[in-house]
Amino acid sequence: MTNQNRMNRHFLCFLSLNPMATGVVAVNLENYFCMKRSNLPISLLITVLTFAYLPTSANDHKGKWIQLFNGKDLSDWTVKIRGHEVGINHHDTFAVQDGVIRVSYDKYDTFDETFGHLFYKAPFSHYLFRAEYRFLGEQANGGPGWAFRNSGVMIHGQTPETMTKDQDFPNSIEVQLLGGKGEGKRTTGNLCTPGTDVIMDGKLLKRHCLSSNSKTYHGDQWVTLEIEVMGSKSIKHIINGETVMEYTNPQLDDGTLLEGGTISLQSESHPVEFRKVELKVLGKGKK
After folding, report:
1. Top CATH class, 65-281
2. Which of 48, 63, 64, 96 is the most buried (most CB within 10 A)?
């Protein structure tokens, strides 16, 4: 398949999902091919350009909390699980029960590296994200040891439609959520960077995961996560009201700055619940 054909397929898919982006994205795609930046895949380019239409749609909600989860169903969300096509909710991994989003593995025989993500329908650029989460129950049979009481919220991500069938994680910034093991220290609100990098303390970080300075939260208690995102300028992780990590310049591995993208919730083999999932659009001038 030629670059042009790949562009047409991804471009039409993107515009069907985000019709307000038609003009600005078309111009940027034209500029992309004029500059012959062939080293960046079209799917990643579309993810980077997604933020371009956000001010038009997001400003309608600026300063108001937007309820991303309606407490009843997953009608505003799209599932993508490794080894399956977009929209296939393998073994009902993601479900709504008692007003919460429940990530569970009751119907699994073995996990078999079927990492999954639940994507919200629209991307965002400058915002404050907030949700409560808790871990409970036992890890799925066959889940990797590192995934014990492990989940995450992915931000500045690519769209599920641009992920390959066997892709583990979307190219994104991951706010990693960890639960305590009953004793010892295990921080949450950490940073992981699948396909991405950030700058912290003036240095480009190439490590895949970096621990925050949060407290450890044992048991099945609810924990409040907030993420303050200012495009490519800065990102803060906040746990129970305390800022536990800050960094700047989120970017793809090739150095392309990420101004915005998708938000998704993770499934990594340990049951977890999310509730009160909401977002407030912030002005670009906010400090």
Report:
1. mainly beta
2. 48
